[in-house]
Every structure is written in structure tokens, then in C-alpha cells.
DNA sequence: TATATATGCAACTTTTGAGTTGCGCAAATA
DNA sequence: TATTTGCGCAACTCAAAAGTTGCATATATA
């Protein structure tokens, strides 16, 4: 099943995994040790993250190091962009409102 | 129940609602017309979005207009910030790698 | 005042997803 | 070669979440 990046990031454990491997690539076993969770449970999270390309595997003998794929994370940034202008505008309007109230109090 | 902003945004319908009302405030009925979905289903999504403060209600007689709360969306931006430097670094490294390959070809 | 409209809440069903146990395969090691 | 280790896949359980129907409440309108 093709995974949705938004759905992938909605899980706290997967967000923790991303934060960890953004610093250093890890094997599934290493991740399982970090969280109080079986290796298989971590393996499922890895599958989700892999299918939406947020992580990349690097085989090394029988071990697999999973790396963070920063490029994919930019999709979020692009989605957010449609709201960024919006929040800047809302804050400017708030500033204006506050100064108007100030004026009225004088 | 206190809702998680990541979980709130993971649902496609809720993302569509946010995109709509970022442009113009809408009533629950108006939203239900946009999607092929009962009013009650939309109402539940509204509840989720409201509980994590992504939208704000504005009562007008018996109608309720829901507005987009841009400020809350910034929480995403803050979470993304921890990766932003990371992806810039990865791209710089890629640039470096590409120019190295270029040099070798000469 | 009677009726229609806009909404929220509760109970229920169905679907999805997180986590477990059990298994098989491939690589390292004795 | 036999055994251990690292990993993925499949079947299962259980909890959460999406969507439905039904009902209650408040406001507008005839």
C-alpha cells in the first residue's frame, strides 16, 4: 500500500524515529532498543516510513542502516507554504487591531 | 479529549477543510456540501480541528462560521525547523558530490 | 405559536492501524 | 557445517477513529 506522508508523521513513535535518524542512521534493532517496543513493531513503522520515502535503507552485511531522507520532508514545507502567507496576514491584521484599540483608549 | 495537531492533519478530509477555510470561513453545512459526506461526519472533523485549535468558531444567529487559525499551523513549522538545516546540508553535500564527479570526468 | 433550519451530542457499525507472536531466510561466526 | 544473529513477512488481537442514524436544542420564519 502506498503510504501518505501526513499519515506517516501522525504517529509519535515514527516522529521519534525520524528525529533520531536525522542525526545518525540506525538499524531496526538499535531503534527497538531506544523505544520500549518489540523489533517487529519498529519494523512496521520502518515499512511505513520507507514506503513514503522518508527513510532510505543502506545494506551492510546482514545489517540495514536506515537514513533520513530530507528531500521528502520538504513536501511538508510545500504544503505549509499555502498557509504561510495566510498566517503572516492574520498577524498583521492582529497588529492593526491592537493598535486601533490602543488609539481608542487614548 | 485533547487532540494532537499531527493526528488532526493526517486526515485528507480535514486537510481539505483547512485549505477551504483558509480562503473563506464556512459553516458546517457548507462544508458538507463540498464533500460527499453527511453533515454529522463533517461535524466530527470540525470537532477534531477545533479541539486542537486549528479552527475558530464565529456564531452568527443560528449559523456558525469556522475560521482558520493560522497561528496554530506554525507549530508544524517549528517541528519542521529541526529538519530544515538537515535537508539544506544534505543538498549541499549532494552539490559537492556532483561537482566532484564532474571533476573526475575531465 | 407552529414549522423549518442549523447545529451538536450519543449510540452504533465498520474500518484502520498499532502491537504481538510465530515463522522463514540470509549473513556472520563457532 | 551447525548455530547464532538481524531482518522481513503473515496471521492475529485489540484499540482508536471514521462514518452512519437518531435525537435534542436553539434560532429564524410563516
TrEMBL record, chains A, B:
Domain HTH arsR-type: residue ranges: 1-88
InterPro entries: ArsR-like_HTH (IPR011991), HTH_ArsR_DNA-bd_dom (IPR001845), WH-like_DNA-bd_sf (IPR036388), WH_DNA-bd_sf (IPR036390)
Lineage: superkingdom: Bacteria
Gene3D superfamilies recorded: Winged helix-like DNA-binding domain superfamily/Winged helix DNA-binding domain
Organism: Mucilaginibacter terrigena
Protein name in the entry: ArsR family transcriptional regulator
Species classification: Bacteria, Pseudomonadati, Bacteroidota, Sphingobacteriia, Sphingobacteriales
GO molecular function: DNA-binding transcription factor activity
